[in-house]
Amino acid sequence: MFHSRALLLALTLTVLSFPVRPATAAGPALAPRPWLDSSLSPDSRADLALRAMTRGEKLSLAFGYLGTAMPDRHYVPPPQARPGSAGFVPGIARLGLPPQWETDAGLGVATQRSSLYAYRERTSLPSGLSTAATWNAALAQKGGAMIGAEAHSSGFNVLLGPGLDLVREPRGGRSFEYAGEDPLLAGEIAAAEIRGIQSQHVIAVAKHYALNDQETGRNVLSANISAAAARESDLLAFELAIEQGRPGAVMCSYNLVNGVHACESQWLLDRVLKGDWGFQGYVMSDWGAVHSTVRAALAGLDQESGYVFDSQPYFGAALSEARAAGRVPAARLDDMARRILRAMFAAGVMDHPIDGASAAIDFAADRLVAQADEEQGIVLLKNAGGALPLPRTVQKLLVIGGHADRGVLAGGGSSTVFPVGGNAVPGLPSPGWYGPELFLPSAPLGAIMGRAPQANIRYLDGDDIAAAAREAAKADRVVVFATQWAAESIDVPMTLDGDQNKLIAAVAAANPRTVVVLESNGAVLMPWLGEVAAVLEAWYPGSGGGPAIARVLFGDVDPSGRLPVSFPASLDQLPHPVLPGTGVPDKQSFAVDYTAGAAAGYKWLQKHALKPLFPFGYGLTYTRFRYSGLRTHVVGGQLTVSLTVTNTGNRDGAAVPEVYVGAASGGWEAPRRLGGWSKVMLPPGGTAAVSIRIDPRLLATFDEAHDRWQRPAGTYHVWVGESAASSELASEVQLPAWSHEARWSPPAI
Ligand code: BGC
């Protein structure tokens, strides 16, 4: 596990050398412990506990261990760590403060890949992009609550997710963990996940802060972007997630930002996160992302994670010495401990303790939560001639490829959730610590058979392309499953793996009624798009993937996902047609110049008048919607948009009216920004009135020199579309000037 990161680490240290392990018996007397009174506020409780703590105890809270043994480094985790877990921070028994048991991550309860441990078998949500593709915050919250509850039942009180780095780089190997390319969508979906996780008394961790947008060179690259552009894009996603979700922690990332390591960036941590946004939780480092003691401590890092990943333990003994020498003030150490305590009290970690033994988990119920998420996350990209839904009366159906007879693909790396029932396709070769490819045992084939029991359904693995084409010619309908595997610590080309493009082209040539189901990290190129009848993007479908895909294929549910990322038509359309860092020797630093500034994804494409394969926000349905009655309302200088949406088709379906805004005078990073949306389920003929409040920051630009959002008075465009590239309705509105300090957040409704 983590071998790519291990290469960066020179020292071999053992846990036993850390001199400030917490006092368990020593220290002031046991009672009273007023901070355990749950009627007090988290702030009061944190203050009370802090006052009772010794310096060693404060230092111990700021130092986390890897929870998994690493024999090659002679590392053994503290005995109380959960076997095969990501992290562990000792508790302080005399004060009644439990340890922090940390696990990955945003899709469910992971186990570190290591031959030393049995994997925890847990429920996996579909990929983060699938959840974002639901455009349904309520569903995202339910998913968060499900994985939070599994975490708690598994003995964890810190869940190291969700991830919400903007998907600026479609080849980024962790796109599947994230929530798309738009700050509003990513921020709102992540906020909902955070609320769900923390509802289960488990601290959620928003990560990776910030601009950790590609895996190639992630430890050494510097993401270079103007402060204002960052505030309007990647940082805005975090700002929204933090203000709406209130995560207990934020994880600073591996990369550098404008030449400074993210975990020692005073600008990112102290000024923006804690200052401007008033973040009250704590900042923990990514595993191996700390490079200094005093610089990191003074910049705002509160907890070093995952010892032995850093090249030396920068907090722990070194922080103790820096503190004693006055290089780190007492107030800063107090602030670290207080923030951690406050997050624990706020999430209810002390009031809902974990007993250590795994509690029973209702896997059948949890799988349905994952399935519901996937059912709304699947995006129908093409549907020529009403090829979908498949008729239940289909006679001869051929299913090909993607191991659809056994399961659905999952992404690799620290986020991998090992499924109940084990890997459905064991024995695939592993390219690195982050693999091998893992398939969750939720087979689409079985679920398809269940929906059309009368049909003659055959499965071919697709390895023999000629044979697949021959059989396709004899079938009434063909469904080809195609996969693209991605993982933490690698980036991937924007193509399907192996010979799958050839397979699809050959099958489509033999049978025009070919449907393609993609299980991909994110956007892929589709050279065969013109030849196939239909395409569904199913992302990494999660533990309920098989039935979800089958139900959408047969129309038991209307496809209601909308793309949370653009699908570019070619690499030339990207801000970096060649992936930054390509050809740079391992460990040699390089810059990723964010020439796009705040114009990530569709904003870049629109600014340069580039037509993608499929635009952000796009997704077909089996029904049709009409939008009407667009009105703008300006109250107290703030814009609200209202409209009516009607289901004009003959099936149930979910409309997603997307509101885009633009400045008539220009001056923005792009012509349009997503300003809001709504997701409305409607029966045939059903109508709903929708009202969407536009956050004024989405109508403003950030003025770094004055640390303010600024919106000049003037004319602003409002569009309602079914994607970033469409306008079903359009209007203009006059808005007064609005200017507010960086610390602005919307008043509670
Ligand atoms: C990843 C984090 C993860 C941590 C602990 C790192 O490699 O970047 O997302 O939480 O490991 O496993």
How would you sum up this structure, described in words?
Helix 5 runs parallel beside helix 6. The chain is globular and about 80 Å long. The chain has 18 helices and 32 strands. With 749 residues, the chain is an alpha/beta fold. The relative contact order is 0.12. The protein has an 8-stranded mixed β-sheet with strand order 10-7-5-4-3-2-1-11. Strands 12-19-18-17-13-16 form a 6-stranded mixed β-sheet, covered by helices on one side. Helix content is 24%, strand content 21%. Strand 17 (477-483), helix 16 (500-510) and strand 18 (514-519) form a beta-alpha-beta unit. Bound molecules: beta-D-glucopyranose (BGC). Beta-D-glucopyranose binds next to loops.
Gist of the model:
This protein has 749 residues and is α/β, with parallel strands linked by helices.
Amino- and carboxy-terminal Cα gap: 46 Å
Which percent bin holds the helix content? Answer: 10-25%
Oligomer class: single chain
List low-confidence stretches. Answer: 1-27
Instruction: Label the overall shape.
Output: globular
Strand order of the largest sheet: 10-7-5-4-3-2-1-11
Q: What molecules are bound to this protein?
A: beta-D-glucopyranose
Structural class by SSE content? alpha/beta
Write the layout of secondary structure elements.
Blueprint: H1 3-6, H2 42-51, H3 55-61, E1 63-67, E2 85-89, E3 100-103, H4 128-133, H5 137-153, E4 158-159, H6 183-198, E5 203-209, E6 221-224, H7 227-232, H8 234-245, E7 249-252, E8 256-257, E9 260-261, H9 266-276, E10 282-285, H10 294-299, E11 304-307, H11 317-324, H12 330-347, H13 363-377, E12 379-383, E13 396-400, E14 408-410, E15 438-440, H14 444-451, E16 456-460, H15 465-474, E17 477-483, H16 500-510, E18 514-519, E19 534-537, H17 545-553, E20 590-593, H18 602-607, E21 625-635, E22 638-647, E23 653-655, E24 658-663, E25 673-677, E26 680-682, E27 687-693, E28 701-703, E29 708-711, E30 714-721, E31 729-735, E32 738-741
Parallel strand pairs: 1-11, 3-4, 4-5, 5-7, 6-8, 6-20, 7-10, 13-16, 13-17, 17-18, 18-19
Antiparallel strand pairs: 1-2, 2-3, 8-9, 12-19, 14-15, 21-22, 22-27, 23-26, 24-25, 24-30, 28-29, 29-32, 30-31
Helix pairs in contact: 2-12, 3-12, 5-6, 5-13, 6-8, 13-17, 14-17, 15-16
The protein binds beta-D-glucopyranose (BGC).
